Amino acid sequence: MSQSSRPHSPDDQTAMYIRVKRNKITYFLTCVPSETILQIKEKLQELIDQPVNDQRLMLMPNREVLDDSKTLADQKVENDAVVALTLRKDDNEFEDVNITRPTDFNTSRDADGGSNW
């Protein structure tokens, strides 16, 4: 059996992406499930010029704070996941999550608010 025909397992390091949102900005980051949250924060530091210690990432929609030492796979962060980025303010507290949902892409205009980010 050749290596390319072997069955895929959840541990395969297939490239994926996550959407990191803050205010009205979305960053699309390419990553692999074995990357730690700290490594994701280091990628963000290059983009936004904010130290990793001043970043907090939360998996949406449940707002679970992601642990720097754990991998994306450990914390059930899947391909196309939405992660909220908050930054540390001057008073040493983190800002509130402020994510704007695009309304012009909604397929349904129902009043239920929808659960898709």
UniProtKB/TrEMBL annotation:
Taxonomic superkingdom: Eukaryota
Ranges for region Disordered: 96-117
Species the sequence originates in: Abeliophyllum distichum
Domain Ubiquitin-like: 16-92
SMART domains to which the protein is assigned, alphabetical: UBQ (SM00213)
Start-end of Basic and acidic residues biased regions: 107-117
Name the UniProt record assigns to this protein: Ubiquitin-like superfamily protein
Family matches, as SUPFAM superfamilies: Ubiquitin-like
InterPro entries with a match to the protein in the record: Ubiquitin-like_dom (IPR000626), Ubiquitin-like_domsf (IPR029071)
